Please model this.
Amino acid sequence: MDENKEELKKKEDEEVKETEEKTVETSEEATEVAEDANESTEENKEEKEEENVEVEQEEKAEEKKVEEEKQEVDEKKDETPEEDSEEYYDDINYQKTAEVEKVKAKTRGVLREVLDWVICFILAYALYLVLNYFVFSSPQVKQESMFPTIVNGERVFVLRPLLAGDYDYGDIITFEAPIDNQNYFDDDSVFPVAQYETYTGIRKFLYNVFDYQKVNYVKRVIGLPGDTIEIKDGKVYRNGEELDEDYVREGNLTEPQVDKYSRVTVAEGTLYVMGDNREQSKDSRTFGCIPEERVNGKVMIRVWPLTKFGSIDKK
Model:
């Protein structure tokens, strides 16, 4: 019995010892695990710290790089501010200059066009003056003295003396109006010639070229130099022969307007003229014969109104 107890006790002691050993081993293992865990935690912490340090370093490096770039940019700006501003101002000045040049060019173009028109107008007007003075004119009739051949308001074409040639009986002419009731005679008092005012200088130029204050008459040629014109019994006699004047309205008698002009001899270089409307015409019966140099030209055709456009009969 005792032996059994001792064996049991021994077994228990052995079991306790084994249990203690296992417990020790387990605790050692746990300690090792804890130590391992602590070691791994420390390692993780170290790794994280290293990572954080690396990140911080990278951020710092990035910030430093950015600052360096900014600094470089600022340095470049500081180094070349005048050049940039000069280029900028040069661009502005160039644009302003270009705009000014455009405006100037446009202005020059307008002025050139205006000048061209002015020159064209001056040349055209000068050509008109030359043609009007030497070649032809187209005056409007503003009198009743040639009715019914030419009616007041009609416009006629007049060929200048340079091209008109010699004058003939029945020609319709225009001439400068003489001074009213002023004439002179040769010694025998049979050559009455119309008298005119004499102009000089600029007044003469304006009078002859621009017709300044010039009054013109339109009449028919009745007598040529050397002819004797006599008015009696309401009729006209040339060199003793009665004139057949179909252009005078029936019943419109020809009477002397100044008694001493009832019989005259046409002087050399002059023309005896009368209007077809004898009762309302101031002509050679009043102021005498017209000097040929005062004749503006021959009436060739009627140009207005268009319904009556054409030549004018001489007879």
User: Anything to note?
Assistant: Confidence is low (pLDDT under 50) at residues 182-188. The CA atoms of residues 47 and 212 lie 119 Å apart.
